[in-house]
Specification:
It is built from 13 helices and 13 strands. A seven-stranded mixed sheet has the order 2-3-4-12-5-7-8, with helices on both faces. Strands 6-11-9-10 form a four-stranded mixed sheet. By secondary structure, the chain is of the alpha+beta class. 45% of the residues lie in helices and 19% in strands. InterPro entries: Mal/L-sulf/L-lact_DH-like_ah (IPR043144), Mal/L-sulf/L-lact_DH-like_NADP (IPR043143), Mal/L-sulfo/L-lacto_DH-like_sf (IPR036111), Malate/L-lactate_DH-like (IPR003767). It holds the Pfam family Ldh_2. Keywords: Oxidoreductase.
Length: 341
């Protein structure tokens, strides 16, 4: 059996925060980025866990993320709240904007948070769950950098362009989905490359536009959208709403800004929060009760609600701790030493 080390969620958060702070991140950025990274490990989403630390540090060293930047909130009292991240990591900007977004959504029924000039590196569901914890439904989306070919295309143009949605369930974990509009997240292909395992067919094309199952060729070529033209259309919608509409970079522009896919993408993010009570006011039936009947019907057919595995893993991690392999622990120590030297 492979030896493992078990760490509590607070202990792992402390370790990751320390690495990021020693690397030069502000207190706010170090804390919020660490919380998202540890959430990935806690919920058994390895592709969004401590694996992401190295990319954060690499992008910081390249000067493409501003470790000491303090995001600035602009609120004119309307349904649109803005946070200029000023080059900071996106979790710091979200932490500043989310409380205002939640209050405004409860007041008006719907509100949006536009985050500009941020570096995004991980999943969207941690942000979604901040809002569902406050009884709000929520959508979040962002471009990436051009690594995905549009349906029928042969070269990278779109980003992996994740989309997340959450619905609050009083007394239960929320209904949440979070997925890339590419067949898989780029991190999944990188993990296949590191392990030397082939990709499933239909995930990617090589530099000549031919189908490939080789992760190295895929990283040099382009990923494909899920569902063919349907995923391509949704991905393009995200470019428009979370790029062009909020006055930020689309995926091709983000790649031009970075000059490399070895760094984390720089762009904007759009989060929309909605109050089920406001929208259903005066209509028959309670929105949450009707939603529960729908969820029960889905599960009653033997289907699984999205994120159930994450929530199961989370309960275990919170009760028993997070298991890290010897290689993972050695990697954390190596990163800690590298930022101290």
């Amino acid at each position: 059996m492979t030896p493992t080390t078990t760490l509590s969620v607070p202990r792992l958060t402390e370790m990751v925060t320390g690495i990021l702070a020693d690397a030069g991140l502000s207190d706010l950025q170090a804390r919020t980025v660490a919380e998202v990274i540890v959430a990935g490990e806690r919920d058994a989403c390895k592709s969004h866990g401590i694996y992401r630390i190295e990319g954060c540090l690499r992008t910081l060293r390249a000067g493409k993320v501003q470790g000491k930047a303090e995001p600035v909130l602009t609120d004119d009292g309307s349904a649109v709240i803005r946070v200029d991240a000023r080059g900071a990591f996106s979790p710091a900007a979200f932490a500043i904007g989310a409380p205002v977004l939640a209050v405004r959504a409860r007041e008006l029924g719907i509100a949006a948070l536009a985050i500009n000039s941020c570096t995004h590196f991980s999943a969207l569901w941690p942000e979604i769950e901040v809002l569902t914890d406050q009884g709000l439904a929520a959508l979040a989306m962002c471009p990436s950098y051009a690594t995905v070919a549009p349906a029928g295309g042969s070269r990278p143009l779109l980003g992996t362009n994740p989309l997340a949605f959450g619905w609050p369930r009083p007394g239960k974990p929320p209904y949440v989905f979070d997925f890339a509009t590419s067949v898989a997240a780029r991190g999944e292909i990188e993990l296949h490359r590191r392990s030397g395992s082939p990709l499933p067919e239909g995930w990617a094309i090589d530099g000549d536009g031919a189908p490939t199952t080789d992760p190295t060729s895929a990283l040099q070529g382009a990923m494909l959208t899920f569902g063919g033209h349907k995923g391509s259309a949704i991905s393009t919608m995200i470019e428009l709403l979370a790029g062009a509409m909020i006055g930020d970079l689309t995926s091709p522009e983000a790649l031009d800004f970075l000059g490399s896919t070895d760094l984390l993408p720089h762009h904007g993010e759009l989060i929309i929060a909605l109050s089920p009570e406001k929208f259903s006011a005066g209509r028959p039936g309670a929105a949450f009760d009707r939603a529960e009947r729908l969820f029960e019907a889905i599960v009653g057919q033997g289907a699984r609600l999205p994120s159930q595995r994450r929530f199961t893993a989370r309960a275990r991690s919170l009760a028993e701790g997070i298991d890290l392999t010897a290689d993972e622990m050695a990697g954390l120590e190596r990163l800690a030493q590298s930022v101290r030297s």
